[in-house]
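Running co-folding for glycine.
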Amino acid sequence: MSLPVTLAAAFAARRARLSERFGGPALIVSGLSRPRNYAGNRYPFRAESHFLYFLGRPLEGAALLVEPGRAVLFAPLPDPEAELWGGKQASLDDLARELEIEVRPIDELVASDELATLPAQDAEGAIWQSEVVGREIIQGSGVELEGRDRELADAVIELRLTHDEAAIRQLRFAAHVAERAHRAGMRGTRVGQHEYEVRARMEAAIIASGCSCSYNSIVTVHGEVLHNERHDGLLETRDLVLADVGAETPEGWASDVTRVWPAGGQFSTTQRALYDVVLAAQRAAIAAVAPGVRYLAVHRAAGLEMLRGLLDLGIFRGDLDDLYMRGAAALFFPHGIGHLLGLDVHDMEDLGDRAGYAPGRVRSASPGDRYLRLDRDLAPGMAVTIEPGFYQIPALLSNPDEVGGLSSALDRTRLLEFNDVRGIRIEDDVLVTSQGREVLTAAIPKMTDEVEATIRDR
Ligand code: GLY
Ligand code: MN
Ligand code: MN
């Protein structure tokens, strides 16, 4: 499978769909590169996802004007000083020819009160965008947007919620590259390696596929630290390796995949038992994905199945529904079942819960549901992740406020027998189809026997 390239006509069709939904002029900016530690040392430029969605080309400091019947790209003129360091820049004529769009110098952009735009994501970007648009642009999510900006955000969300064929080709490729990465990670794992060696093999597979990472890789024997950023741990025989690693295509589309495997090549009995509980919860959630189904129901299907498994293992005692209502699943599975996936790994999270939550829905305060990033009714063309987990998190299990009324239902002696499991998460990328669902990452080993066989395949 080779890198898919989206044709100019597909971007033109997206721009036309935007102007059908939003009547006035809209300005979608690409943004600036972001500083790492000081102004001159910057992260590689990554254009804002909305800009990539409508144009496909990561041009720094550019803005796309979309209005009924017309789209114009405003781009910086090639700068000899910048070319000294960065190499030849495309001329405006080159851009017009390659992107099949009218191109003007960005200095010619005329500010107007009619011009709607989307929020900036950092302070430097907000200053630049304010200059471009000619009024103060706030930094932040889309929750507090007003007037025309809010209408534009809602129109963009409506478009980006369901993916067209070109986007699905990109998502499939990102999923395929994630398969290469996870197989490479499993295959080379040996006791005595460092986490960073496993990470390096996984990221090498992504880079060798012409992609980059879609977020900071998590590769750790401490899966219970949900956003673990350390990679210096040593792999020991009884460890489980949790790898949450995804790819981003050059056009910006993401995959987001987690697998867990035994460092020593074989799951212990207790690891296998808990892994299969998480897997059953994940399969129940995937089976629940279908058009018209509320994502909150998918989340709850996973929590209930996980709790059923924990009752079967004797970690909890009591009545399934009663325990679920009292937050028992969340004690071990404290995050949401997943999120939207697209150009952003948490798609459109720059627009806050405006994107993830259907109008009229707000986040629940309950421990089981409060971290759910998405609560919409699913529709064909949406892509979501399904990623339940089981974690023994000291901050939860040793906190009387968290365990609360569940302490008599929780068998801590039995739980101790599972102390070779710190964290397990299984995450797949799922496309909603008219018939139900398609797991884009289905080729990545997931059953315990299959995972063990992949590790052995040295
Ligand atoms: N890798 C980020 C997430 O799973 O949401
Ligand atoms: Mn995810
Ligand atoms: Mn992930």
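Result summary
Residues 165-187 form the longest helix (23 residues).
The CA atoms of residues 232 and 443 lie 29 Å apart.
Job closed.
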